[in-house]
Amino acid sequence: MKKFILCVLMTGMYYTQAQNVFTTNAGTISFFSEAPLENIDATSKKGHCILNVTTGDIVSLVAIRSFKFEKALMEEHFNEKYLESDKYKDAVYKGKIQEPLITDRDTSYQVTINGNITIHGIEKPANYKANYSFKGGVPAIEGSFNVALKDHNVEIPKLVIQNIAEVVKVTCKFELAPYQKKD
Amino acid sequence: MLTIKKLFFIGFTFITLHATAQDDLMKMLNESGEKEKKEEVTATFKSTRLINGHSVENNKQGVLQLMILHRFGQINSGGYEFFGLDNATMRLGFDYGVTDWLNVGIGRSTFEKMYDGLLKVKLLKQRKSGTPVTLTAVASMQLNSLKFTDPQRKNYFSSRLTYSYQLLAASKLSNAFSVQLMPTLIHRNLVPTANEKNDVFALGGGGRIKISKSIAFTAEYYYVFPDQISSTYKNSLAVGFDIETGGHVFQIHFTNSRSMVEKGFIAETTGDWLDGGIHFGFNLNRVFTVYYPKEQ
């Protein structure tokens, strides 16, 4: 009896990890700031995301340092002055997809994600619309949302107020693969 | 028979399973994520120059830095000279990032009608853990293009040349505080008297303290080892502020040196701080990204 229960539990755990959970560490996250004097965009191709398709729980994380800018100095200032990536290494989103996720056929539809986003060490509630798709046995999440810098205590000096937008548009794209536990 | 222990075990397992929500996902994410490499320390200083001399900072690949540097006359020259402001010398210079680790630069100073060229190589980068310092080597050559004072005697072109070699070692001790040491060798092909050495060894020290995100206080001092240069010359001391505004860095400072090239401010500084022999000056730095390196 004991062994049987253990077996069931272990299988359950294995099942949870192997079949229901999908992940990537090569998602694309970019942001765009449109201000009177200049447009700034940066992209990270090291967006991490993990999704449980049974529960709808989703977590995404990106290292602030992994954002690449066209201008080297912008990248330095972004890390040093604005996002302070020494202190606040990552931006993190934790949420739950409200709709049931279809995994038995190819599909694509809009979903609502309710959760919290942490940028610059400040956590804020964040509910987003995103596109969920399932194709060839793997899911993908794609979406975009706005982040107001002042929500996360990112201060823009008056001198460069013409160069940096107060609200930046963030775009994410994650193509997920089955989660495999690393040894 | 189920003992209490077994019940606990089963209960605990269920709790564990139940908790497989976002926090567990987070844990799994961290496990599957690549192990973080030892991060490089960046922005030890705001500009490629500490004040008069170099900092360990290099322009990144494809970045062109335009420098317009001014030093005014000595403050103790009095009201007639508007405390030195009537009497400006300047250096116009360009530094360019050939690669992230190699910078080349050229400049022209009004003082001594000087041309200069430089090579700046980053040898070592400070990392969050491990390497404690950033090392940069700078070699520069200066060409004095003034007419020879005595055209009658045999003058050699090589007499116009001086060289300077520096090894810069800097450490960003905290987000706000960085220090730098600068062992320096200056070689002068021609010196005025036999008592003055062709090779001059000096040791510089400096640092910066950030006052706000955009403003930093800086200081720089060069100690010239004794019996190498004429005793009328002083050690160079400069203090100032870096003000950074996006693509510009303004450096305003007070220094007892007039020259803006190494052989001048290290080995030929005439001003005396105690006497008011101080020059007001500024460096205006503007960077342009002229070439966009391809993504790796």
How does this structure look, described?
- The complex is a heterodimer of chains A (183) and B (296).
- Chain A is an alpha+beta fold and 183 residues long.
- Chain A contains two helices and ten strands; from the N terminus they run αββββαββββββ.
- Chain A has helices at residues 2-18, 72-82; strands spanning 21-34, 39-52, 57-63, 68-69, 90-97, 107-119, 122-135, 138-148, 167-175, 177-178.
- In chain A, strand 7 and strand 8 (138-148) form a beta hairpin.
- The mean pLDDT of chain B is 89.
- Chain B has a twelve-stranded antiparallel β-barrel with strand order 1-2-3-4-5-6-7-8-9-10-11-12.
- Chain B is built from three helices and twelve strands, in the order H-H-E-E-E-E-E-E-E-E-E-E-E-H-E.
- Chain B has one domain (63-289): Porin (Beta Barrel), CATH 2.40.160.40.
- Chain B is elongated and about 110 Å long.
- Chain B has helices spanning 4-18, 22-32, 262-267, and strands spanning 63-74, 89-97, 102-109, 114-124, 134-144, 161-172, 177-188, 199-210, 215-224, 236-245, 248-255, 279-289.
- Helix content of chain B is 11%, strand content 43%.
- Chain A binds chain B through residues 2, 5, 9, 12-13, 16-17, 21, 23, 25, 48-52, 55, 57-59, 61, 63, 65, 68, 70-73, 76-77, 79-81, 84, 86-87, 92, 94-96, 115, 155, 157, 159-160, 163, 179-182, and chain B through 6, 10, 13, 17, 20-22, 25-26, 28-29, 31-34, 36, 39, 42-43, 59-63, 97, 175, 213-214, 244-247, 287, 289, 292, 295.
List the topology elements.
The complex is a heterodimer of chains A (183) and B (296).
Chain A lengths: L1 H17 L2 E14 L4 E14 L4 E7 L4 E2 L2 H11 L7 E8 L9 E13 L2 E14 L2 E11 L18 E9 L1 E2 L5
Antiparallel strand pairs in A: 1-2, 1-9, 1-10, 2-3, 2-4, 3-5, 5-6, 6-7, 7-8, 8-9
Chain B lengths: L3 H15 L3 H11 L30 E12 L14 E9 L4 E8 L4 E11 L9 E11 L16 E12 L4 E12 L10 E12 L4 E10 L11 E10 L2 E8 L6 H6 L11 E11 L7
Antiparallel strand pairs in B: 1-2, 1-12, 2-3, 3-4, 4-5, 5-6, 6-7, 7-8, 8-9, 9-10, 10-11, 11-12
